[in-house]
Amino acid sequence: MTDPSTDPAAPAEAGALHGALLTLDSHIDIPWPDGEDPFEETARRLVDLPKMRRGGVSAGCFAAYIPQGRLDAAGHAAALERALAMLDRIGAIAGRRNGIEARICDTADAVEAAHRDGALAVMPAVENGYAVGSDLANIALLRRRGARYLTMTHNGHNLLADSAIPRRDLGDGQAPNNGLSTLGREAVAELNRQGMLVDVSHLSRQAMLDAAGCSAVPVVATHSCVAALCPHPRNLDDVQLDALRETGGLIQITAMPGFLRPRGADPAGADVASFVDHLDYVVRRIGVAHVGISSDFDGGGAIVGWRDASESGAVTAELLRRGYREAEIAAFWGGNFLRLLRRAEQVAAA
């Protein structure tokens, strides 16, 4: 057998495959409050539409990131206002200019249709259930703005759940909710009713296990890595991975240097091989159907060999080099995530 690392045909094969795939990056941050025109390439942002086009990225989940604040009425009102404004900004990406068409897609079918038509698919999301506050009716409001998943917490606890990383500056204790709160469990049920995925990235270990156990739709960690390879509090351990397998859930490995290399190793050395090491681990532990790809670009993600959206083909090349088949690579690059979206749509329609 020819060694793919020395085969001169390998780069061409990888490029052809990558160009044909529906590739979905499940977590991208947007500029806020000021942002460049997404149809124009800029050096400051790691993701814009020209970089997506050049890097063969078919679709991206663009997140309205809400920083954690005080758990009071004023804080919750400001968080909701910001979330809605950011979702409006994401919605405004739709259009056609400079030879690029972008579509706002809030169903799996719409993403696939955009790919068939040569358009880039933009899927809105919200990062941090702090925007929900104490009023679960706000979940429907976010969904009407197009959001297809809610990251239950960010750094810092909120009324829904405990975070993997408490905010001491906000007075956080270690685990005031002991996982998901009663309101958090009700929020999971409402997310299920609205057809929104439950994103367990940023949750504490217990909160993540609670969410996986109580959600009618398999949960997804849209931007996390593996604790066995890098013991960071944001990463999932083997018990959590096994819970994903048992419930049909999904972890989207992310290009965050500090999540990829263990403490003591220089995170600047994180590269595409490190990234695929984490994906390999999940495949061996719980199977191909339970892992996918995210960048967290413009939210801290960027590694050697995959520094922005234009270099996304490097991930496909490394997967091919390690012997993954086309169907498996397609599953990692979006097939698994779209399957969960369809399941959420089915539950919401029932």
From TrEMBL:
PANTHER family on file: DIPEPTIDASE, MICROSOMAL DIPEPTIDASE
Source organism, top-level taxon: Bacteria
Protein name, entry field: Dipeptidase
Membrane spanning residue stretches: none
InterPro entries: Metal_Hydrolase, Pept_M19
Gene3D superfamilies: Metal-dependent hydrolases
Species of provenance: Rhizosaccharibacter radicis
Pfam families cross-referenced by the UniProt entry: Peptidase_M19
